[in-house]
Design a protein that fits this description.
The structure holds two protein chains of two kinds. Chain A has 18 helices and four strands. Chain A has helices spanning 4-17, 20-39, 63-73, 77-80, 88-96, 110-116, 133-156, 160-167, 174-194, 212-236, 242-281, 284-291, 296-325, 332-356, 360-377, 389-395, 400-413, 420-447, and strands spanning 52-58, 81-85, 102-106, 123-127. In chain A, helix 11 (242-281) packs antiparallel against helix 17. The model of chain A is unreliable at 42-47 and 208-245 (pLDDT under 50). By secondary structure, chain B is of the alpha/beta class. Chain B has two domains: 4-221, Rossmann fold, CATH 3.40.50.300; 226-293, Alpha-Beta Plaits. In chain B, helix 3 (93-103) crosses helix 4 (108-121). The chains are: A mainly alpha, B alpha/beta. At the A-B interface, helix 1 and helix 12 of A face helix 1, helix 2 and helix 3 of B.
Chain lengths: 452, 310
């Protein structure tokens, strides 16, 4: 058998002598990883998005508005929110200068109208159009406040006229104790609805022999579920730890990073395999065939070369990304095996595409469509559960990109996941089949006159 | 015994018959030239001989055995120099030679030793460590040639190895090929340069539109024109036709006729002065007559009706 190491050494030496195309291939995913790290705050523990600076315009200047103003920067809210209290004109000026994320306006007579329930009340939020994430977070928070105020109104509506008089200083202060007493009784009756909460979350223990897709759906539920738990806990007890928040954040980054890697490796594989196009164009593959009868060792050498390039890229993506996001890979050996299998599949796939379309310029379109299609339908770019039903149910499970990305995610999020071996086997089998197809197709093309 | 024997080789691509029943043989220590214009079928013929293309019809025998019965053995006897520069520009000259030596089956040590020998023989030893992309066109051609010689093949297939290089570099390569022939290597040399075929090859096959029209030594091909001289007449021939001149076609073979020129060769061994007298007595006003040795171009002209340079 021909020495594959001679072919591999030749390709690596060529890549080393002309590193620019390969460096560009490496820089793109590295830049993407760094960009995402910067956008989401990277490893800044406990304050991934930083404090959100916004203005509160209190035109009501009532006890209730004071309460809302105070709630905006007290206790845990103060860790994430940075309110400044201004007049409407100044606040709008700051938003125009892009110095704050939003303006919350508490309009005149807010408390009176809320307690009398004669006129609908409103809290006005003006979002900074130059920002996307922070205003959206504030809108969500304000939604939670409104929900709370509505709940309060529904349960304590009968007491509101008396509370209004108390708060406006018209009521006999001796009656305050009676009102508080009555409120306590009502809260006591509501206790069973408030604690424990109506909405609960129980994490199911995964089954050891579950397949990839089940693990996927469980993982997605886990992610959504753990976020729900935090919300409920924060509402009832306010004792969410920084660790669990970071865990959630890392879970999201890990989920994204693995998907992004699955996608990028497809494009990097396409670039790596263009070297086979170069061998065809420069007639070096033709010269090889004047010396050797068998074509497959050359093809295998090129596939191994592509796999080496892809593994270096994977190390940058997953290793570098892991460092940026402080991800601790749960089962690095299994993940490495999966990555090797996936890289083999990618290299073999693009070898087939080269054999199908030896013309480099025309092949570019086909390769892009194949890479994009596999990435999108395989659930790399979006979670598989968000894809249209037909794709999700019938096509996505057949995609090798899906085998890789879902197995890698399950390895990370599911302690008992053991399906990666089967995914690896399927990837390797697929790669072997594609290699054979590529060799046959290329041989056929040569015999029928590739360059004639 | 011939080292390469090609029998009735044919290849069709769709509606195009690229090679049509081509047969020839190449003996040890012989340079056989396959002469023809671009698109004549030379490269397709070499591709079939070297196993890159499978012939539709015909057989190739290398070293006495059928190529397709043991392709690897046949390939080991051959060295193929493609028309394109099939080398790695990022690698040095020495690395290119060593790599192709390994592909040809040499051990690492043998490939290194042989690469150094070839670099010296091709006068590239002082540039051995430079990347090929920094070489001149002639130097690249020499490396391209050297890559086929690592395993000391008994037969060399050269597909237009001097295309696109300067005259000095061409002379160097041709000299090297003559030296290879002197060592007993059989060489199949395709070209569309008449001078190369005339000066380099012992036997020449003329190919056009996929068909081998004639073959032989230069003098054998010249004899096809009826001797070692041709007459070129300049006159206003207009509508006059040689077949209307009394007995003209019994005494002369028309090689080419245009409005202003008529090229003919005498049939049989005849005195040139007598031929000249007859030509001057033709029923046209002859302005000039020149006598020359027939070239391969004249042979090609007579075979195809057009010049090789067209």
């Amino acid at each position: 058998m021909l020495k594959l190491h001679v072919l591999l050494a030749k390709d690596l030496r060529r890549a080393w002598r002309n590193p620019l195309p390969w460096l560009i291939n490496l820089i793109v995913p590295l830049a993407m990883t760094a960009l995402i790290g910067l956008v989401f705050g990277g490893n800044s523990a406990g304050s991934a998005l930083g404090r959100i600076r916004f203005a509160v315009v209190d035109e009501d200047k009532s006890v209730l508005s004071d309460f809302l103003r105070g709630a905006a920067n007290q206790h845990r809210a103060g860790e994430h929110l940075e309110p400044v209290f201004l007049e409407r004109t100044n606040a709008l000026q700051l938003i125009n200068e892009n110095k704050i994320s939003a303006v919350l306006i508490i309009e005149t007579n807010f408390m009176r109208n809320y307690l009398s329930a004669k006129t609908p009340v409103r809290l006005q939020l003006i979002k900074n159009p130059a920002e996307s994430i922070n205003p959206a977070v504030l809108e969500e928070l304000l939604g939670a406040v409104v929900t709370g105020l509505n709940a309060l109104s529904r349960n304590f509506h009968s007491d509101f006229p008396e509370w209004q008089e108390v708060l406006e200083g018209k009521e006999d202060y001796h009656r305050v104790s009676v009102l508080i007493d009555r409120a306590g009784d009502k809260l006591k009756m509501l206790k069973k609805f408030v604690a424990p909460p109506l909405v609960g979350y129980t994490k199911e223990a995964p089954e050891a022999n579950s397949d990839v897709q089940n693990a996927n759906s469980r993982t997605n539920q886990d992610l959504a579920g753990s976020a729900a738990t935090n919300r409920v806990t924060a509402t009832s007890g306010g004792k969410t730890t920084a660790k669990s928040k970071n865990d959630d954040l890392h879970s999201t980054f890990t989920f994204l990073l693995l998907g992004m890697s699955g996608m990028f490796l497809l494009f990097l594989g396409q670039n790596a395999m263009t070297d086979l196009h170069r061998e065809l164009r420069q007639r070096t593959l033709e010269r090889y065939q004047t010396m050797r009868s068998q074509l497959w060792p050359f093809l295998l050498g090129k596939i191994i070369f592509s796999v080496v390039i892809l593994l270096i890229c994977s190390a940058v993506l997953l290793g570098g990304g892991g460092l940026v996001f402080q991800i601790q890979w749960q089962n690095p050996a299994a993940l490495l095996a999966l990555v090797v299998g996936y890289c083999l599949f990618i290299a073999a796939l693009f070898a087939v595409l080269v054999a199908l379309m030896p013309d480099e310029r025309r092949a570019g379109v086909l390769n892009n469509v194949a890479g994009m299609g596999l990435g999108l339908v395989g659930g790399c770019a979006f979670p598989a559960r968000q894809l249209p039903e037909f794709l999700r149910e019938h096509i996505t499970p057949l995609m090798p990109s899906n085998w890789f990305v879902e197995s890698a995610r399950s390895l990370q999020f599911d302690d008992a996941y053991a399906g990666w071996g089967m995914a690896l086997f399927k990837l390797a089998l697929c790669a072997g089949f594609l290699m054979a197809v590529a060799a046959l197709l290329l041989r056929q093309k040569f015999r029928s006159g590739l360059h004639v | 015994m011939s080292l390469l024997q090609v029998e009735q080789l044919s290849k069709v691509f769709g509606a195009i018959r690229a090679v049509d029943a081509v047969s020839f043989e190449v003996r040890p220590g012989e340079i056989y030239g396959l002469l023809g214009p671009n698109g004549a079928g030379k490269t397709t013929t070499i591709s079939m001989i070297s196993g890159l293309l499978k012939p539709d019809v015909g057989e190739v025998f290398v070293g006495g055995g059928s190529f397709w019965s043991d392709p690897q053995k046949a390939k080991h006897l051959m060295g193929v120099v493609p028309q394109e520069l099939a080398i790695y520009e990022e690698l040095t000259g020495q690395e290119n030679l060593e790599f192709w030596g390994r592909m040809a089956g040499l051990s690492s040590r043998d490939a290194r030793t042989r690469a150094k020998e070839l670099l010296a023989a091709l006068t590239l030893a002082d540039r051995a460590k430079d990347a090929v992309k920094h070489y001149s066109g002639g130097m690249k051609r020499r490396i391209n040639l050297g890559c086929a010689l690592l395993h000391r093949p008994q037969m060399l297939l050269l597909d237009e190895p001097t295309v696109g290089i300067d005259p000095q570099a061409r002379l160097n390569i041709l000299e090297y090929i003559r030296n290879l022939r002197a060592t007993g290597t059989a060489i199949l040399y395709t070209t569309h340069y008449l001078e190369e075929a005339e000066n380099l090859c012992q036997r020449i096959g003329i190919i056009d539109h996929g068909r081998l029209l004639a073959e032989g030594t230069l003098s054998e091909l010249q004899d096809r024109l009826g001797g070692d001289r041709v007459f070129a007449l300049e006159a206003d021939f207009g509508d006059s036709a040689p077949d209307q001149w009394d007995g003209f076609l019994h005494r002369f073979r028309v090689i080419q006729k245009t409005e202003k020129q008529l090229v003919v060769a005498a049939i049989g061994a005849r005195d040139p002065s007598e031929c000249l007298k007859e030509l001057l007595n033709l029923p046209v006003q002859v302005e000039n007559v020149s006598l020359k040795r027939p070239s391969l171009n004249d042979v090609f002209l007579q075979l195809t009706g057009r010049e090789l340079r067209e």
